[in-house]
Structures are given as structure tokens and as C-alpha cells.
Design goal:
The protein is α+β, with helices and mostly antiparallel strands. It has 4 domains: 98 residues, no CATH class; 179 residues, no CATH class; 106 residues, no CATH class; 181 residues, no CATH class. 22% of the residues lie in helices and 25% in strands. The strands form 7 sheets. Strands 4-9-6-7-8-5 form a 6-stranded antiparallel beta sheet, with no helix packed on it. A 6-stranded antiparallel beta sheet has the order 19-24-21-22-23-20, with no helix packed on it. It has a 5-stranded antiparallel beta sheet with strand order 3-1-15-10-11, with no helix packed on it. Helix 1 crosses helix 4, helix 2 crosses helix 4 and helix 6 crosses helix 9. The radius of gyration is 32 Å and the shape is globular. The termini are far apart.
Length: 628
Amino acid sequence: MSGSVGWNPGASDIISGALRLIGAIASGEVPPANEYQDALAALNGLVKAWQASGVHVWAMAEGTVFLQPGQGRYGIGGGSTDQAAQSYVATIAGAPVVAGAAQVTVATAAGIGVGSRIGIVLDAGGMFWSSVLSVVGGTVYLAGGLPGPVSAGAAVVGYGVPVARPLKIVGARAVDLVTGVETPLIPMSRLDYANLSGKGAPGGAPAQYFYDPQLESGVFSVYPAPLTARVAVTFTCQLPLQDIGGAADRADVPQEWISALRFALAVELAPEYDCPAQRFEMLRAMAAEKFAVAAQWDREPEGTTTCPFSQPVYQMIAGALRLCGAVGPQEVPRLGLVENAFASLNAMVRAWQASGIHVWAEEDCTLFLQPGQVRYLIGAGSPDAVAVSSQCVGTVLAAAGAGAQVSVAAVGGIAAGWQVGIWLDGGGVFWTGVAAVAGGGLTLASALPSAASEGARVVAYPAPMVRPLRVPAARRLQFAGSGGQAIETPLVPMSRLDYANVPNKTVPGVVTQFFYDPQLGAGVLHVWPAPVDSGSAVAFTAQRPLLAFADLGAVPDFPDEWLAAMRWNLAAELWPEYNGSGAAAGNPAQYVLLKQEAAGKLMMAQAWDREPQSVLFGAGCGPAGRAG
């Protein structure tokens, strides 16, 4: 055995092999220079054509495009002035930097070298880009001065090689450059993106993307436009196969594809050399077989992740209008028809909320209690502190707090505009907004009303949650003491009459029961007894309202499994509008068939859309619970 596994011949060997297959040269013969150049051109054309197959896992790569506040479109490759890297290193500023400085101290300079591109998130929110002149210890010297101040803890990134223009982008994730947390983005088609309004208006964290490869540089669009440069987008893409230059260059294919490439090149060259028909047919069959074998091997295992709903509203509406006979099979729906169907779709989905079985619309939330308070509002404008649990960030005071400046143990994930609660020494929790985050400190929108000791609990979250439709279950969350663990205890739900009949609703004690009243503006969650301190919260499961469709490019707040049910039920919803009513108008038999099919698809989706139920046994409490 040779002990070597690296065989991968150069272009000259592949070309000579292909010419021998078609009988253009004999064994050991070297092709003339002009024939070699013709074959090299054919080889490059063949490899470029193979890009269209999209099965080359060795050409799949990761890239990252770095965002700027308010910018929704970014060029990738082809001399674009936007910043997109094959790979990058992320760190943070180790100390504040003033405007005009041409150096920055970072937590670690590993991976940042002379000539690298470096990006630094400014306090104003944008990312400043420069090149690295030198690195001394943890200090990086820049080619240009900073246009604004930089706080300690600000994100800093560096990269050496920009990413080439991708052929396709098959998936993308938003990544927080400080925490490294990645969030999948939803892909959009060209029409999905074109139909969006307000593409450049900053709306927060990007949730969707569209990639247009173009000719020179690709155009990567995100929606909504980002508010800050702290978030980048990492994507999985198919890169172009590299050109083959000289005779010693290797084709940009792995060893497993060499045989397929040689036979395919022979088929490509055969017509130029009057290859006999019988030999040509044999070579073409062998080339097809070798390509099929290599392509079958050259696939990655498919993921099993359930993706968000991927069909935009317009396509669903057009399908429903065809089903109910409002438009023909190849007809484009008129704007008036689409607008009417759009309103009907929103109404239908709102009615579906009454089923209460949409597991994707259930989320875990946290209500932070105040001593003696039994009634809490949940929804926009509420003065009470209620948040989606996954969005809460917990830390502690690093030093005793007073006034509007507090120092916390960790600010990771906390941003200006968030709500923040600080547990006071005198009892109760003080809630206010975060005016600014700098280093390890928070500037509060309102000063602390009283003292808070070092180690006091601090909780922050980005926005209050929307009014829940229902609260099917809740637990008392006892906060963990020093070195301990939080404890959750199930609460007993009460009906409206149960709660109304409680004789003393403000009696102090440990919370054991709850009642939720949805109301119209904000929901009201009642607890009983009244909490005696702020050492616990209520963790509850909420059924949130389904999101309304803002425009025709919106993606419905449903998983893909509901696609058929939505389209057929919308068609049944629209049928009376476009076919009249009664036996004399339209085709009643068609409506019956449409309604039956819609009901069946809805039933199938609802049957799938259930979570496993636990079985609980308890003591009987009434005639139905007695044994005899």
C-alpha cells in the first residue's frame, strides 16, 4: 500500500484522458498546443455548466454579511463596498474609545492580522470599517480614526477574505455578534420581497431575506431593515466552481468526480473529432451513469426541522380564487378580488383562534408579582411587568444602586429601550426603561426610589407581551436563592364565579390560584392570595393571538401543514361572494364538494395540531367523583 490518499490529477491529465477516450490521441501521445487549449476551454465550460446541478456539497460554504442600521440591501462579491466575509472572528472592545482614535483595545486579538478588515460597532449604532495596520498585544491599530465613541463591550469583528458572489443562498440566520446566538431567517421569493412596503424603514431584528444573484455581485436583502449593526447574517450558500488555468491546475472537484469529469469532457469533445457514432453513444451512456452515481453520493442528509409557513398570502389567495371559480386556471386575479379575499382571510383566521388548539401560538410567559397586588394587566400599555419568558434576561447588581446609574454583573442581551426591574431593599420591584447601556452599567429612564443592595436581582426584557386569548395553565415560580434553584409549583385555575366568590381577595399569603379575564384592551390576570413579597413570579402558558396579515407579501402565522386547509377553507369562505346564493345561482353541488373538502382538510390539520396530553388523577370533589 502507498499510504497516500491524495490523488487528484491536473487539467492536462483529464484532457489527455478525454482525448484518448474519443480516439483523438494514442496512449502516451501529447495533444498539440491548439487542441489542448480548445479542450481546456471546453473543460472550463463543462465545469461551469455543472454549477446548475446544485448538488456539489464541496461547493457549499458559509458566509457572513455585516449589517448597517437602516440598510436593507447589501452587495456580495464583484467589488461591492458592503462587507461580507467567508469567515470572521468576533470579540469585544476591552475599554472605551473616544472619537478620532486610531486604535482599539480588544478582549482577544486572535485571528486579527495585519491587512485584515475590522469592523467596530459605534455607540451611535453603526459599524465602522477600516483595515488593520498592526496588532500589539491586545491593541489593534487602524488605518483610519473612529468617527464616534465606542463603549467597552461593543462588538468588534475581523476578517481576511471576502466571500465570492454566491450562486444561491439556501439558508440564513441572524447572529448576535456579542452573544453568538443565531436565529433562523425566513426566505422570500422575488415577488414576496417586491410586494413588501417600507423596505428601508428600520423595524428591528431582520426576520426574512431574499437573495438575487445578478451578474457582477449578488444582492442580499433583509426585512425589516436592522436597527443596529450588532446583528449580522450568516448564510449557507453555493459558491461558483473555480476556473481551471494552467496544465497543472486541478479541477475544483473532489476525487470522486474525476472519472465523471473525464467521461463528460470526452462527450463534450467528441463532435469536434468526428467520433464514431457507436463509440459516442457508449461514452454518453457511461458519462451519464458516472455523473448519476457521483451526484447521488454528493448529497447531504436532509434535515427534519419543521419550517415556518413558506407560502406568501398572495399565492394562497390566488389558489383559493381559482378553487371557488372566481378566476380561471391561468388568469391573474384583479386587484379588487385580491383585496376582498385578503379581508376574508384575516377574518377567517381570527375566527380560527376560537379553536384554541394552535400549539405554535402557545408560549411561556412570566408575570412579576408585587407585594399585596392581586390584579395585573397584560397587553400593550400595561403598567405591570409581563414578558415572554424566553426574552427575559436576568442578572444582579454588581454594586449597591442609587439614582439613575446602576452597575450590573452582565449586560449581555440588554439594550436601550428595554424594560428593567430592580428588586429594592425595602421590598417590591422598581420597573423603568433602559435609557442607555455602557460597559457594565445601565442608565435608567427614572432614578431608583430607594436603595438596592449589591447582589439584588435585576430582570430586563424588550417589550411587553400581547394580550393572551387564554391562559390554560400557570405555576408559581419561586426565585432561586444564593446557589439554589428556582422552584415551580402548579397553580389551581379558577372560573370567573370561583374568583368572584372569594370573600377576601386581598388576604396575604402564598399564591395558590389564578383567574384570567381576557377583556378587550388588556387581559387581566388575578392571583389569590395576595403575594406577601416579590420573591416569586407567576410563570404561565398563554395562547397568543394569531398575527394579522399586514400585506400580500406577508407570511401567514401558520406552519406548512396548514397550507391546504387555509387555501380550501378560504375558497369555501369566498364561494358565496362570487357564485351568489340559493339553488338558482352558481353550482350548489360544487359548493357542497368544496365545503366537504375544506372541512376534511381543516379536521386533518387540527388533529395533527395537538400536543400529547398528560393524564392526572385526583380525589373526587362532587357526585361524579364519589365511588358509590
